[in-house]
Design brief:
The chain has 320 residues and is an alpha/beta fold. Helix content is 42%, strand content 18%. Helix 1 (7-28) runs antiparallel to helix 2 (30-53) and helix 7 packs antiparallel against helix 9 (214-236). The chain is globular and about 55 Å long.
C-alpha cells in the first residue's frame, strides 16, 4: 500500500497535465491554455480532498489471489447491484482513473515472474508491459479484435484465460476483460450505438448533442457487464484457486466531482479522483488454492503493433 501524496503517485498525473498543457498552447494559444488551467483548479482541489480522505490506494500485486479478473471501467455500485456469483464483496481504491494510470502505477518497473497476464487492453503494449521481463508470460489479444464490434470479445478473452491456466498451472493469472468499457456489444447496446452514430456514447452527452438519454447509456453499460459476467461464469467452472474480480477504474455517468462542484462528467478522465472513478469492487471467491511458483520469463511472441493499429484500437474505445 502507498499514499496518494508521494511523488510515485503524483508525477505521472502531473506529466500528463504538462503534456496536455503544451498541446493546448501549441494548438490553441495562451488564452485557451489559461482557461484550461483555471478549469482544472477545482478538480485538483477536489483531488487533494479525496486523497486526504482515502489516504491509500491498492497495489494489486501485493494482494492475495491466484487469479485476478479485471473488468475494465467497472464501477463499484454497478458491480454490487449486478454480480451473480457467491463470494465476499469488498472495495479498493484504484491507483488510477484510466487504464494507463492503473497499468503504470501497478506494474511499470516491477518484476512479477510468478504471474501470467492475459491482456485485451490497448494501453498494455503502449506502456511496454508486453516486452521485457515484467511478467513470466504475456498473452496479448490485440490481434484477436472483433472488427465488427470494434473490441476484444469476452469469449476470446475467456478462451485465452482457460488456455493460460492449463499451460501455467503454477502461476498467478491476471485476466483483463475490456467490458463493461465502451463500445457496447449487446443487442440493446448496438441499438444505442446505431442511434448515436458512433462508438463513444460519452462524447455526445458531454457536448449535449444527442437524443440518447443517460438512462439509455446505463442500459448499454450494464448490459456489457452482464455479458462479461456470463463468460466469467464459464471461466470459473474451468479453473481453480482463489479468484478476485476487480476493475482498473470506473466511469462518471453525469456526476460532478466534489465537494467543489465541477461540470458534469462522462467517461474516465485522467487524474480525476472520485468514488465513481477509483472506488472499485474487490470480490473474493475463496476456493482450493493453487501452488504458485516463480520462474524466469519465457520468450514470448513479441508484437510490434503499428501506430495505426494502436490508434484504431484507441478510437474504438473512445480515446481519440
Amino acid at each position: 500500500m502507498r499514499t496518494f501524496l508521494t511523488d510515485e503517485w503524483v508525477s505521472p498525473t502531473m506529466r500528463h497535465h504538462l503534456e496536455r498543457a503544451r498541446r493546448v498552447y501549441r494548438e490553441r494559444g495562451f488564452t485557451d491554455l489559461a482557461k484550461t488551467t483555471l478549469s482544472y483548479l477545482p478538480i485538483e482541489l477536489n483531488n487533494l480532498i479525496f486523497n486526504l480522505r482515502h489516504s491509500t490506494g491498492t497495489r494489486v500485486m501485493a494482494e492475495d489471489w491466484d487469479t485476478l479478473i479485471i473488468l475494465d471501467a467497472c464501477r463499484y455500485d454497478m458491480f454490487e447491484e449486478r454480480v451473480p456469483f457467491e463470494g465476499e464483496l469488498e472495495s479498493r481504491i484504484s491507483l488510477g482513473s484510466t487504464s494507463e494510470e492503473f497499468l503504470r502505477q501497478n506494474f511499470e518497473g516491477g518484476e512479477y515472474h510468478d504471474t501470467v497476464y492475459v491482456n485485451a487492453n490497448v494501453y498494455f503494449p503502449q506502456v511496454g508491459l508486453d516486452r521485457g521481463d515484467t511478467f513470466h508470460a504475456v498473452i496479448d489479444l490485440l490481434d484477436e479484435w472483433d472488427e465488427e464490434l470494434e473490441i476484444a470479445h469476452p469469449e476470446t478473452v475467456t478462451e485465452a484465460a482457460k488456455e493460460a491456466h492449463e499451460r501455467f498451472p503454477n502461476k498467478r493469472v491476471i485476466v483483463h476483460y475490456m467490458q463493461p468499457h465502451l463500445p457496447f456489444i449487446g443487442d440493446r447496446g448496438l441499438e444505442i450505438r446505431e442511434r448515436l452514430g458512433q462508438r463513444n456514447g460519452w462524447i455526445p452527452l458531454r457536448e449535449g448533442t444527442t437524443s440518447v438519454t443517460v438512462e439509455e447509456l446505463w442500459e448499454g453499460y450494464n448490459e456489457n457487464l452482464d455479458i462479461a459476467f456470463d463468460y466469467i461464469d464459464e471461466l470459473l467452472e474451468d479453473i481453480n484457486g482463489k479468484v478476485v474480480l476487480s476493475a482498473d477504474h470506473g466511469n462518471m455517468v453525469g456526476e460532478r466531482q466534489g465537494p467543489i462542484p465541477t461540470k458534469r462528467m462522462f467517461g474516465h478522465p485522467w487524474g480525476v479522483y472520485s468514488e465513481e472513478l477509483v472506488k472499485v469492487p474487490w470480490f473474493v471467491i475463496d476456493r482450493e488454492r493453487r501452488r504458485i511458483t516463480q520462474e524466469q520469463p519465457i520468450e514470448g511472441d513479441e508484437r510490434d503493433y503499428s501506430n495505426s493499429v494502436v490508434e484504431d484500437r484507441l478510437k474504438s474505445l473512445g480515446y481519440q
